[in-house]
Design goal:
Blueprint lengths: L19 E3 L3 H25 L1 H7 L2 H13 L2 H7 L3 H10 L4 H8 L15 H25 L6 H31 L1 H9 L1 E3 H7 L1 H7 L40
Antiparallel strand pairs: 1-2
Helix pairs in contact: 1-2, 1-3, 1-4, 7-8, 10-11
């Protein structure tokens, strides 16, 4: 069993329910998955349209262009649907604010040692979210001009082409970086997959958030032992370890 940089949990290890903290609800996770899927379709179809060898190998240019157009137009839909979730709206407010701890986190080399009081999202995640949100709006706007060019003057179409192409290149770079960071932190991926992370990870990566919301989560329908003080002094109840994380029922909004 090996560990991966960025995570205190060995790769392939299971998490004890009594050490788990809920990080994302089902609605929050599905918004992320839907946006990721649509963005992936846009990038893949863009490569088929833009690069000659791909275009020749795939063919069906009109079909690929149609899929690209409507996948792009659908990008805001998961975010708009997510606004029905109170937890998602709360996350948007958190992502929209930089505070003193965020600037300190950027300056510090020991930023991932739990010594900077970072909240639920670190500055990198906030910048990424702002970039993605802004990029979606710009790509949809320029995509409308390119998809239905007739009503627009020539200079608008030329400007839309320039912005769309260069912003697409920036999105490719951002997406590659996002994937690299995700691969280095399997527990962050676990949080997006199941909604839960370990309390140790939360205290190390997001200590301020862990202090406010770090009461270990108990999966519904699990059997608990007789309540008693935790040996580590956290005041938690003992929960048998025979229930694995993957068997937990998904949280409802």
């Amino acid at each position: 069993m090996t560990s991966t940089p960025g995570s205190a949990v060995p790769t392939g290890a299971t998490m004890s329910p009594r050490s788990a903290v809920q990080r994302f609800t089902r609605a929050q996770r599905w918004v992320h998955r839907a946006v990721a899927l649509l963005m992936g379709v846009c990038l893949l179809t863009a490569a088929m349209l833009y690069f000659g060898p791909f275009a020749v190998a795939v063919g069906r240019r009109h079909l690929i262009a149609t899929i690209h157009l409507y996948a792009g137009l659908a990008l805001p839909v998961p975010v708009l649907a997510g606004l029905l979730s109170g937890a998602f709206r709360t996350d948007l407010r958190l992502l929209n604010r930089f505070d003193a701890a965020d600037w300190e986190w950027i300056r510090r080399k020991d930023r991932r040692q739990g010594r900077v009081p970072i909240g639920k999202f670190n500055p990198g995640q906030k910048v990424n979210a702002a970039f993605v949100g802004g990029a979606i709006l710009v790509m949809v706007g320029t995509g409308v001009v390119l998809g239905w060019p007739n009503p627009w003057p020539l200079q608008y179409r030329q400007g839309a082409t320039f912005v769309h192409d260069w912003l697409a290149a920036a999105i490719v770079v951002m997406t590659a970086g996002h994937i690299v960071f995700a691969l280095r932190d399997p527990e962050a991926r676990l949080g997006l997959r199941t909604g839960f992370v370990s309390l140790d990870w939360a205290r190390r990566e997001h200590p301020s958030w862990a202090a406010r919301h770090g009461s270990p989560a108990r999966p519904p329908h699990s059997q608990t032992a007789t309540p008693g003080p935790d040996p580590a002094g956290e005041g938690t109840q003992e929960i048998p370890n025979n229930r694995r994380e993957r068997a937990w029922p998904r949280s409802a909004e």
